[in-house]
Amino acid sequence: MKSKIEKLKEKRPNLITAISKAAKGLGNALPMIFGTILLVSFLSTIIPKSLYTQLFSKNVLLDSIIGALIGSVSAGNPITSYIFGGEILSQGVSLIAITAFLVSWVTVGIIQLPAEATILGKKFALLRNLSAFILSIIVAIVTVLILGVF
């Protein structure tokens, strides 16, 4: 029977491999994160804060639709969407709009739609994006209701 120390020594190569892969993944993500921070900083200085209050009306359904529309057109990955979502939350945008934005940012791909339609078929691509858009609104409303932040 092996002791605990021997078992740990056997797992050491796996741990080193995992740490190496995680460090490499983080290294690959850092340029995107820094680029997003710079872009958000640039946009926050150019776009007046009054635009956010004009765009979002504090109406639950309307804010979630607007957030989902903006997220659908702006394709991106989850890491950068959290940074962007945090910044617009600090500008006074409602949590429901940001949640719809984040979910649609990751799941709906208007920009990638032509490529997706070519590869997977037009009907499938349209139905997938439409259902992802509708579900992003539903997920936003349910999430904020569960959190009780209305």
Tally of domains: 2
Name the average pLDDT.
Answer: 82
Proportion of residues in extended strands: under 5%
Summing up helix and strand content along with how strands pair, one would put the structural category as mainly alpha
Low-confidence stretches: none
Q: Would you list the SSEs in sequence order as H and E?
A: HHHHHHH
Distance between the termini: 58 Å
- What is the overall silhouette? extended
Helix content: over 70%
How many beta-strand runs? 0
Please state the CA-atom Rg, rounded to the nearest Å: 20 Å
Largest sheet: none
Tally the helices: 7
Written description of the protein model:
This protein is mainly alpha-helical and 150 residues long. The protein folds into 2 domains: 1-46; 48-150, no CATH class. The protein has helices at residues 4-46, 49-55, 60-73, 78-90, 95-107, 113-120, 122-147. It is extended, with a radius of gyration of 20 Å. It starts with a helix and ends with a helix.
Topology record:
Elements: H1 4-46, H2 49-55, H3 60-73, H4 78-90, H5 95-107, H6 113-120, H7 122-147
Helix pairs in contact: 1-4, 3-5, 3-7, 4-5, 5-7, 6-7
